[in-house]
Amino acid sequence: ELTGLDNEDAAAALPRHIGLCYDVCHAAVEYEDPAGSIAALRAAGIPVHKLQLSAALRVPSMGPEQRSALASFNEPTYLHQVIRRTSKGMVFHVDLPEALALGAETDGEEWRVHFHVPVFIDTLGAFSSTRDFLEEILALHKADPISPHLEIETYTWDVLPAQMRSATMDKDIQREIRWVQEQLT
Fold first, then answer.
1. Quick check: 110 and 60 in contact, CB under 8 A?
2. What is the DSSP letter of 2?
3. pLDDT top residue among 35 and 4
4. Residue 100: its H or E element
5. For the segment 104-132, what is each residue's pLDDT rounded down to a tens digit?
6. How far apart are CA 92 and CA 88, in angstroms?
7. Among residues 123, 134, 122, 88, which one has the least CA distance to residue 108?
8. Phi, psi for 167 (deg, rounded to 5)
9. Which residues pair with 53 in a beta bridge?
10. What is the spatial distance between Cα 178 and Cα 124, in angstroms, rounded to a whole number?
11. Which of 16, 53, 10 is nearest to 150 (CA)?
12. Helix (H) or strand (E) holding 116
């Protein structure tokens, strides 16, 4: 009513102004299917106004070495949600310490941890990142653009374990931008 548009014109205008921010890191942590999730949004007519590009921690099979390595990511600044894939389904934890406290009972499970890591790094020693998910989203975007706005999300630089900081923050951010550009060319 405030716009003065009739229902048909309002319905046509709405997707230009209201849309979704597709957070690639969160989608990966939630074990979404990259192509399937984008296809479902398109089929529902939900526009993606921004692709938020980042990668999370992925532990394909939890064990003592992985638990020990994950401990270096246990920091109090942010919540680092964990989703464990168990034989009984998905189990959600609000923060990493809660999941790590379970110890050996989680051995063999896949974990995804919402802790942003540089997109240009795939292997993180005892585990990896969800960069493959991001690569698939960027390939989909390259073939058929998903959004006019791409944002590389890098807010955890200050809390990354020291061994993951390869240079100064500005150099690492430049590496992230170059890596994304390479995926799109």
1. yes
2. T
3. 35
4. helix 96-100
5. 999 999 999 999 998 988 888 899 999 99
6. 12
7. 88
8. -160, -160
9. 152
10. 20
11. 53
12. strand 110-117
Give the neighbor-by-neighbor strand order of the sheet with 150-152. 20-23, 48-53, 150-152
Asked if residues 115 and 79 have their Cβ atoms less than 8 Å apart, the reply is: no
Q: How many residues does the chain have?
A: 185
pLDDT value of position 125: 86
| Alpha helices for the chain (secondary structure H) | 7-17, 24-29, 34-43, 64-70, 96-100, 131-143, 169-184
CA distance 114 to 2: 40
**Tokens 């499970």, located at residue:** 109
- Ramachandran angles phi, psi of 177, nearest 5°: -60, -45
In terms of Cα–Cα distance, which of 179, 153, 157 is closest to 166? 157
3-state secondary structure (DSSP) of residue 51: strand
What is the token pair recorded at 56?
């999370």
DSSP symbol at 90: E
Task: Report pLDDT digits (tens) over 32-74.
Answer: 999 999 999 999 999 999 999 999 999 999 999 999 999 989 8
